[in-house]
Amino acid sequence: MTHTRDFDRETAVVRRAGEPAVYDTDLHGDWKVGKGINGGLLLSVAGRALAAELGAGEDGHADPFSISAYYLSTSAAGPATVTVDTLRRGRSVSTGAASLRQPGEDGTEVERLRVLATFGDLDDHLDDVRTSAKPPRMPPPEECVGAESAPPEFRADAPLLGRVDLRLDPATVGWAVGAPSGKGEIRGWFRLPEGREPDPLLLLMVVDILPPVSFDLGVYGWAPTLELTTHVRAKPAPGWLRVVHSTRNFAGGYLEEDAEIWDSTDRLVAQSRQLARVRMPQETAR
Amino acid sequence: MTHTRDFDRETAVVRRAGEPAVYDTDLHGDWKVGKGINGGLLLSVAGRALAAELGAGEDGHADPFSISAYYLSTSAAGPATVTVDTLRRGRSVSTGAASLRQPGEDGTEVERLRVLATFGDLDDHLDDVRTSAKPPRMPPPEECVGAESAPPEFRADAPLLGRVDLRLDPATVGWAVGAPSGKGEIRGWFRLPEGREPDPLLLLMVVDILPPVSFDLGVYGWAPTLELTTHVRAKPAPGWLRVVHSTRNFAGGYLEEDAEIWDSTDRLVAQSRQLARVRMPQETAR
Hints:
The structure is a homodimer of 286-residue chains.
Chain A: H1 7-10, E1 14-15, E2 22-27, E3 32-33, E4 36-37, H2 39-54, E5 63-71, E6 78-89, E7 94-103, E8 109-120, E9 145-146, H3 152-157, E10 165-168, E11 185-191, H4 200-206, E12 225-232, E13 241-246, E14 250-251, E15 254-262, E16 268-277, H5 281-285
Antiparallel strand pairs in A: 1-2, 2-6, 3-4, 5-8, 5-12, 6-7, 7-8, 9-10, 10-11, 11-13, 12-16, 13-15, 14-15, 15-16
Helix pairs in contact in A: 2-4
């Protein structure tokens, strides 16, 4: 069976007839990284169900302002359900909870992800922009490093690399050849290969698309996310996105990973932070 | 009636007999700021109920690793209940949800706060610390500015200033005399006046104790929190804490506010980020 790349179809949720606030989806194996489905992709799926639920009606709120995800178990390719619980409908924002579940090995449902989120209307935002953060400086996409340059064993462990057009700044890929910078920063360009332009729900996936920033500190191995919170601050303009991952506090076997997403007009459109567990060298050696 | 200052008593939760996972508490008016109870204090209360629930038993997890709070309505002094829902008990961490409710004006319960959190055991953390963030440099507490220097109308609007020993770095209090630095940073020393030493549950309050960082950008008025996520990364050592609030993205009528808490051994013990709504000058003028 051929698979036509289509982010919207792959994150689609279908409201279950007769069961309000329950949505069915089918997680595609293309979005795997390590053992499970990419955490950002799951967040986009949950976000889509929340948008359908909180965005319904004339006074609905369809844009994520803030969304916090707690990862409970490793998700697999295949069917999943998202159940949304509306906590508050307000004038300017609404808040909901969402739970993503899959049938476990014994057939009973297992929760993969629990989410809290506040949605609103990004078009309501004031024009005032006083962002003091500066957009990253890096070479143009055609001078950056695509996934085709990654080692085959790395790509085999991360099928999602074939699903996105990600070009890393050569200054932040030393880790791939055993020479991490030690600064704790990885940055790159992002777009979907099928040409679909970015929107707030895509940003929820993009905040988690770069390799773990711990690679740039010379600590390899996937870094499973405990918690990931994203603030979407504006609708992104069409074109390439720039993504910057960084960390300031790698300690005790955990690290915080901050992501910023900048759009083609130099607007900081999303900020995220996650707490991830890192396998330390002494653990790997055991 | 005299009131003896006691953070532990003021954040105490009592498990309701016969109703597992329901805790009663009484929010003290001393912790008001603007119209409601301080969001950090509420987070400490919710954290205490989560610690009681997730920390129970031999394999319990009593320390917050990550806790995300979504603020739904303005809380008031008086009775409140916290209901905890355990989502997953794991070997190294456990995850739960908590809901803080109060009787509304018509007597029916109104949800103030919904929380998701992952708890573990901070003593299990590895010794490896590679934090690249640097502790803030500021004058000693006795050369910093205490709440007694705040304008009386400001103190009247923030009773909690009488409940904490907070000393702001003179370099970041220009806003109090109409000369904000424009950098978007406020920092200071913190301790409880009753001499109680810091612990992880106190940190949940301290992340939200400084004035809104928007003051340093010359935008006054309280900045209500939509969402606040805190990562507790280590148990704080006894002594003064240093707190730094900063923002990089003040735009569209919202700002992200980052807090770092450093302990007396120069360890970065907590990081938090919140999304807050700011009243812009044009709004204030309307």
